[in-house]
Design brief:
The complex is a heterodimer.
Chain A (H helix, E strand, L loop, with lengths): L3 H38 L4 H5 L13 H32 L3 H13 L4 H16 L4 H26 L2 H9 L4 H29 L3 H4 L19 H9 L4 H35 L1
Helix pairs in contact in A: 1-11, 3-6, 3-8, 4-6, 5-6, 6-8, 7-8, 8-11, 10-11
Chain B lengths: L3 H45 L1 H7 L2 H4 L3 E2 L4 E2 L2 H32 L2 H16 L2 H28 L14 H25 L3 H9 L4 H30 L2 H6 L17 H8 L6 H32 L4
Antiparallel strand pairs in B: 1-2
Classes of the chains: A mainly alpha, B mainly alpha.
């Protein structure tokens, strides 16, 4: 048997190694956030939010179209993906203890691991090729596909947390199953589902790869959802790999805007959930 | 003659049943849609890449010649770049993720668990393209000026660390991927360790084990297959990661033993060339790379889920 002293030292060193691992894991987050803030803030001004990109060589200009485009594409994606996901989640939680339920659950889990770029290829094949047009709504479909598994699985999990007593009470009062599900069960689980939805939205808002060949990009305003549309992530990418210093500056500022947007969604999602836990 | 009561009763009930059946059917339709989308994804990619599949056969994954002008397409350099950068990412990320998840689930004081876990999840929330931007302007110059000269001086006898210091290359790609998969592996591992029954811990403590011995002798053996699953999930993410690695790996389709030299990944070549691809065969070849990526990541995901479920089965 090892001596007590030896075991104690080993215990302490392993624990120290684990603390170090956490520190190392968090360092990149701190570094990235610091750099994005420092580099991005100097380009932050009113025209960044209100003006179109300037042609190469001219300084100034903004990303108004990309900011609006991101909101538009993500909004459309949520309008498509959230209802489908919630309804699929309802099926899994309320009726899904069967073979079909298992299959769907499995498909959703597998889908959450599909690389986002292949989702882009898929939507290119089914929409862009057929309409012969890059468009905001092709981008929205790609993002909707990406958020679908998350929304479905979190909806299911949260609906399952609703006590059966509530369902039984509603049915016992003569309410039909569908009304009980929508008005009692879904409403009870709503704050949790909202958290899941916000996390899913935050995740897809920063996606670039699936937009490259669906929404594409645009240096001007898109006049309809059937046109190529600029988005913040794609704009950051194009500007970051360009050779122009001015564009690099704009990329940092755009990254700051995007990160703030995504982190706000994340933090408020958790805040919503905490409110819920406190009141119950 | 029926009484009004008995005529109304079944009618009333059947109407309600119809509403319920409709509702169930509607939700089932949306649920089935998920399966349909996944299946259609596979079909669609197979369809788009048919020309290339037929034209090149197995040569596609054995040839290193990628020449759009002559319509010769061999994907080996991209496969190599993807596999090596992902393995490098695993080598860097697995020890860190394991340490972090052990700390988060076993060692951390209760008041620190939630905020620390939250920070790690935020790491996953930062968009890929932002990591890429940071990689281009901060990480790569740092590697070029500090890390690579240092590695070259100390370990330069190994072929891994030879050649000019460029910053952009396999090493940068591996590091960026490692940063991005650490939160995945950590959070899944943490869930798996949470699912280890407390009696195992209590039993070991009662026998006089130290905290780290409890982890080593009670928690890890029980959680092992789930932890392997977590690592495979991380690998799946690394293989499919696109933007960040495209921005730092240098995008040159060559196979080199040195980690300093530029490389190219499957996802990057799709991202870079797809919209500029002219000619059906070129498009099909890129789609075939996408198909390969899809098949491999789906297979890895299935294996990983099964392994994780052996320890922590959700619902």
């Amino acid at each position: 048997m090892d001596s007590y002293q030896y075991r104690r030292t080993r215990d302490l060193s392993i624990r120290a190694a684990c603390v170090a691992a956490v520190a190392v894991a968090i360092v990149p987050l701190a570094l990235v956030l610091t750099y994005v803030t420092i580099q991005g803030i100097s380009g932050l001004n009113w025209s960044f939010f209100t003006q179109l990109p300037k042609p190469v060589g001219e300084t100034g200009g903004g990303m108004a179209n990309a900011i609006f485009g991101t909101l538009e594409i993500v909004g459309l994606a949520s309008a498509i993906g959230v209802p489908i996901g919630i309804f699929a989640g309802i099926y899994l939680a309320e009726f899904g203890n069967n073979r079909l339920g298992k299959t769907v659950r499995f498909a959703a889990d597998v889908m959450s691991g599909v690389p986002s770029i292949t989702v882009g290829l898929f939507v290119y094949g089914i929409i862009v090729l057929r309409t012969r047009q890059f468009s905001a709504w092709a981008g929205a479909v790609a993002l909707a596909v990406l958020m679908l598994p998350t929304v479905t699985r979190t909806s299911e999990e949260l609906l399952r947390l609703v006590p059966d007593a509530l369902r039984e009470a509603a049915l016992g009062l003569g309410v039909s199953r569908w009304r009980a599900t929508l008005r009692i069960v879904l409403r009870t689980a709503a704050p949790g589902i909202a958290t899941g939805v916000m996390l899913a939205v935050a995740r897809v808002a920063g996606e670039t790869a699936p937009l490259l060949f669906t929404a594409f990009g645009n240096r001007f305003w898109a006049t309809s959802i059937n046109q190529p549309t600029a988005s913040l992530p794609v704009q950051i990418y194009t500007y970051a790999v360009s050779p122009y210093d001015d564009w690099h500056q704009q990329a940092w500022t755009a990254a700051l805007v995007l990160v703030v947007l995504v982190l706000l969604l994340n933090v408020s999602a958790r805040w919503v959930l905490r409110q819920r836990v406190r009141t119950s | 003659m029926d009484t009004p009561q008995s005529r109304l009763g079944p009618l009333h009930r059947s109407r309600r049943h119809r509403g319920d059946a409709l509702f169930k059917g509607l939700t089932a339709a949306f649920a089935v849609l998920i399966v349909v989308i996944l299946a259609d994804m596979a079909l669609e990619m197979a369809r788009t890449s048919r020309a290339s599949l037929a034209h090149f056969g197995w040569r596609f994954i054995r040839s290193t010649n990628w020449d759009p002008v002559r319509e010769q397409f061999g994907a080996l350099p991209f496969i190599y770049g993807t596999v090596v950068s992902s393995l490098l990412a695993l080598i860097l990320a697995v020890p860190i993720s394991m340490g972090a998840s052990i700390w988060l689930s076993e060692l951390a004081p209760v008041w620190l668990k939630t905020p620390a876990g939250f920070l790690i999840e935020l790491l996953a929330a930062v968009p890929s393209v932002v990591y890429g931007l940071w990689g281009i302007f901060v990480l790569c110059p740092f590697l070029r000026n500090v890390v690579e000269p240092l590695l070259g001086k100390t370990l330069g006898s190994l072929p891994l660390f030879q050649g000019p210091h460029q910053g952009f290359g396999m090493l940068a790609g591996g590091i960026i991927l490692a940063i991005m998969i650490t939160p995945t592996i950590t959070s899944v591992s943490r869930e798996v360790m949470k699912a280890v029954p407390n009696v195992l811990r209590e039993g070991s403590f009662a026998l006089g084990a130290t905290r780290s011995e409890v982890v080593r002798m009670a928690v890890l053996p029980y959680a092992r297959s789930g932890l392997v699953g977590a690592v495979i999930l991380g690998l799946g993410r690394a293989l499919g990661e696109t933007m960040a690695i495209t921005m730092v790996i240098g995008n040159r389709s060559e196979i080199s033993a040195s980690l300093f030299s530029p490389s190219y990944t499957m996802a990057s070549v799709i991202a870079n060339e797809f919209t500029e691809a002219t000619g059906d065969l070129y498009l099909a070849a890129l789609a075939e790379i996408g198909l390969l990526l899809f098949v491999v990541t789906v297979a890895l995901n299935i294996v990983a889920r099964l392994l994780v479920w052996r320890v922590a089965r959700p619902t």
